[in-house]
Amino acid sequence: MLKLLYAPTSPYVRKVMACAHLAGLAGRIQWLESAAHPVRRDDRIAAHNPLAKVPTLILEDGTALYDSRVICEYLADLGASADLFPAAGARRWQALTRQALGDGLLDAALLARYEHTARPAEFQWPAWREAQLAKVAACLDAIEQCAPMLATRAPTIGEVTLGCALGYLDFRFPELDWRARHTAAARWEEAFSALPAMQATLPHDI
């Protein structure tokens, strides 16, 4: 059985598990508890991943795969899911670019969150946090532009990542009220989030 070091709040873990559901592999993954943190290393993760980050997937032969981009492509290949990662051509590059857009939004959002939750108050830098949120806003504008072209059935890794990114904003940044200024993205996210793979992987605090 595959083993996944995870955190229930991680959008990157959600991305992996959504792909596992879409590839028909969710039942073959055992969840391993961890305490991933940007400062305090968890030895349970570090034993398999020198970055000590989740998600980390442990294969049956003990090989470890990381990060979410690698794990998602592995699961798509293992489950013979051709939709998630188109094999070639313009559709593949579009899917990978949208994955990068979603990952970039998440990277910036997490840095903004860590500035308040992981850094002591005396060392916090408000301008840094605002710069990360400016990246989030720019990503939202880009998602708004491409929203009418995004799939709600047979999604690629691009849609999965964007869906997890928008879901993370709902989970951790409700004050941004991103839907108010991004109505096309909001309509797409509402339809996409109804997919069983997305409903089965909603984030939650421990």
From TrEMBL:
SUPFAM superfamilies: GST C-terminal domain-like, Thioredoxin-like. Residues 1-83 form the GST N-terminal domain. CDD domains: GST_C_6 (cd03205), GST_N_3 (cd03049). Gene3D superfamilies: 1.20.1050.10, Glutaredoxin. PROSITE patterns: GST_NTER (PS50404). Transmembrane segments: none annotated. This is GST-like protein YibF. It comes from Achromobacter ruhlandii.
